[in-house]
Design brief:
Length: about 260
């Protein structure tokens, strides 16, 4: 209660009222008895853009279930450059690698601010061993994350920068609430590993097609159908596999 009262002082009540663990798709898949047992262990956190959740080489103490924020996973190179390897939104859990080992092999930081439910690794491990449904859901989520990383690797090698940017916009939109994304063109370029000028050219084209609208540090998708028509096959492949993995996890749960 003390933590919740502090949170209420810092945030509008309307933002808090719409937050529930079921806003995260993994938690929403839990059967009612397992969900009700886990909820008291969850802590609602407000996460700010740029906030670090854990760093490479650290022992992870908490995992996070985003509800309307986005967390990026990055790996740092010896020369100081970093590369984003995955984005986690309301469809996943940040820190899923802890299921095998608590030591993190990447850095997790908040890309787009919002809310997430935090759970201690100790509680996660207890529930993972006790609850078959949670085990199946998280293993399915881990498989899904690997699939997305593999598909993004193929996309980066064989598809145009325009197609990569459009795929990024569509997949990001699926991970948040609403149609606005707080991000700069430079940040998109760094995540995709391409030149900022190339991203600017794509954004200019999308604006001309009335697919998006941009202001400083923020973009809004105004015509998703147009983006879908410009996307490569990778986005639909990711969406289709997400549906398959979720259904398999649910169907395999004990009655």
């Amino acid at each position: 209660m003390w933590q919740m009262s502090i949170l209420k002082q810092a945030l509008p009540c309307s933002d808090l009222l719409v937050q529930t663990p079921k806003n995260n798709k993994l938690l929403a898949q839990l059967p009612p008895p397992d969900y009700e047992r886990l909820v008291p262990c969850l802590e609602l956190r407000s996460l700010s853009a740029g906030q670090e959740l854990f760093d490479m080489g650290e022992n992870i103490q908490h995992v996070y279930f985003p509800t309307n924020c986005i967390v990026s996973l990055t790996i740092a190179l010896a020369d100081g450059y970093t590369a984003d390897t995955a984005m986690i939104g309301k469809d996943g859990m940040v820190g899923i690698g802890v299921l095998g080992n608590p030591r993190s092999f990447n850095r997790a930081y908040v890309r787009c601010s919002g809310f997430a439910y935090r759970l201690s690794v100790n509680e996660l491990n207890l529930e993972f061993m006790r609850t078959e449904s949670l085990m199946r859901i998280l293993l399915s989520a881990a498989r899904e994350q690997i699939m997305q990383m593999a598909q993004s690797s193929v996309c980066a090698r064989y598809h145009s920068i325009e197609q990569q940017v459009v795929k990024w916009l569509l997949t990001t939109l699926d991970k948040i609430d609403g149609d606005s994304i707080t991000i700069t063109q430079g940040e998109i370029a760094r995540m995709l590993g391409v030149r900022r000028e190339s991203v600017s050219m794509v954004m200019g084209k999308l604006i001309a097609f009335c697919a998006i609208a941009c202001t400083r540090g923020k973009l809004k998708v105004v015509d998703k159908a147009r983006l879908l028509s410009m996307s490569c096959e990778c986005y639909e492949t990711i969406r289709r596999n997400q549906t398959v993995f979720s259904k398999l996890a649910i169907d395999s749960m004990p009655a």
